[in-house]
């Protein structure tokens, strides 16, 4: 059986929240790693895959970017930004005694994001890093005999029937994660149930090695056409220090004239350019 | 007692190789984490600290960059590039039977870098990720009764009296790591025993939020003065998606006119600029 959507699992993670927002009525298949999610689309086991691209606190997810560059055949067809809201949850058996739990399980990033709550309210507890927030919640569900709790999202609490005993324990209010949808061809994926925030085009540029001001020249080609760049990021080409791929987000969708002309010109000065996708982006409201 | 140099330990890591190259006659103190190394300079427990900044394969060490931005009081005073050469080593007891060892310990990056050797020659062995290459070598030294080996550098083999049974097992020949030396003030650290490769100046720029072409304008200010940029990197400001620090490496040392004028001008268009250091850089030859 082939599923419509693959995602970085397990259930109850923030990636699963992104999947539920984008594909509310589809069966989704979880994979254990980002490369496995990407391969699943490439080999046709799923039609789309949803992977994290960037987080407010942690920055770019390098594994996603490095794989996207490697698998140039796949296209980004949509993007959704999901707010990161962390809650402290325990098995219903421990609800009354939640403040005395001995060990708290979660993803290392989630533990870091809830430093204030953990150091003030849960000083006595040992922190135990876990592979994902969803897996931490599952472990708590499976061990009602232990005095433990998990930090995870509302979806994980629902999925694993845990009680949220303290909501919104994250230090920073506007922490968000960007997720992208990958697909075999470049048909933009429109999502009717979410308000459209705009369009982006992501390109990868390799500069010529013998040309000192090449990056400035590339940016000039966009600047005089008033094509706004919302992000520029370098990643190593893995062939030697000083060799980089540049990933550039353009604040508009692919057109017939301006972007193609710019790309043709920067190729003419010796750059190698790939369009990773031109796609709509959405903001997911957290209803909880 | 205060040590001259702090570094990311334990003994026998690539950071220790950088320390031995830069400070051959000094006692060095190892710390367990990058933030601990940086704090050690800040609080005066050591005069200098050596931390990894960038690797050919893995890219920038985000933790180092994020801490450097946060601790703006510290300066980068020198840089050394160390070739990454990985070797397979065992306890002398297992030297004859090295091809049959059951478990191989190393840092996850080192295991990934030796994929070819591991999948061809050591197919039967289980791979065990460890905190560092040095710690993996120490574990092998401490357990002569176990059928195990480690992937680490020549310094680790010497430090822990292990036998290198297969040298240079890394897939990619020109893998290198850049290390920087941090100090409380901006006195460049000259290293007489290494040939000087040149000078760099690293600056951090925060762009004004209300100004779309600001990055292009910043690069223009350097370009028309023919100040060459060798690297540009973005890191999240951790206040919301779309807000970045830019780290820019300039291919020359701080002067009295050109760089100060450029900085004054980009500050005048609303950027926030910090000079993280202006320093000599060196290439360490691997003598083994």
TrEMBL record, chains A, B:
Reactions mediated catalytically: prephenate + H(+) = 3-phenylpyruvate + CO2 + H2O
Occurrences of domain ACT (ranges): 203-280
GO terms under biological process: L-phenylalanine biosynthetic process
GO CC, any one term: cytoplasm
Site-annotated residues for Essential for prephenate dehydratase activity: 177
Alphabetized UniProt keyword annotations: Amino-acid biosynthesis, Aromatic amino acid biosynthesis, Lyase, Phenylalanine biosynthesis
InterPro entries reported for this sequence: ACT-like_dom_sf, ACT_dom, Chor_mutase/pphenate_deHydtase, Preph_deHydtase, Preph_deHydtase_CS
Domain Prephenate dehydratase: residue ranges: 4-184
Pathway: Amino-acid biosynthesis; L-phenylalanine biosynthesis; phenylpyruvate from prephenate: step 1/1
Organism superkingdom: Bacteria
EC number: 4.2.1.51
Record GO terms (molecular function): prephenate dehydratase activity
The protein, known as: Prephenate dehydratase
Origin species: Amphibacillus marinus
High-level lineage: Bacteria, Bacillati, Bacillota, Bacilli, Bacillales
